[in-house]
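Lab notebook: predicted structure, single chain.

Context: the supervisor wants predicted structures on file for every construct in the current expression panel, including those that have not yet been purified. This is the next one on the list. No modifications to the sequence; it matches the entry in the shared construct table.
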Amino acid sequence: EPIPELDLSKYTSFSVPSGSKAGDVKAWEKTVINCQQLLQHAATAHINLELMNAHAAASWQRHLTNLTQTKDRLVAATKRRTEEENSICKTRKVQQVEASGTLKQLEQTAQQYKNNNASIIEALGPLTAEVMELKAKCRIRGILPEYAEEDEFDLEAWQEAANTTS
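Prediction complete. Output recorded below exactly as produced.
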């Protein structure tokens, strides 16, 4: 349900007592008081208009100056944030490039270790065969120590490891 509008007629007009109230002093006193209030209201409105006419331009200029200063502060803050963001991005990029170099170096080192391991395992093949041959001869002669029996070398496991690393 809409709110009813305010009745502003008592601030803008007055009515003169008529008919049976035309001779009533109280009704006329009320009308005079109402007219005085209307005149006071009009005088106040006139003063407000004079003040607005005298000070509106300066007030508007202050408001525009405040808006301009606020805009300048916001633009400066935005510029500062953008510079901070760019600085962070540059720092991250440098760190990524450095990490990339380190990763490449580690990858090369790992590949070098794999190659070295493959070379060692390849060299172990003939040596292992020779050790096994010597152990077999020692067994035949009965001179193989007990600790050597337990120390069997798994050539196939070493060769498999060499194949996976190369």
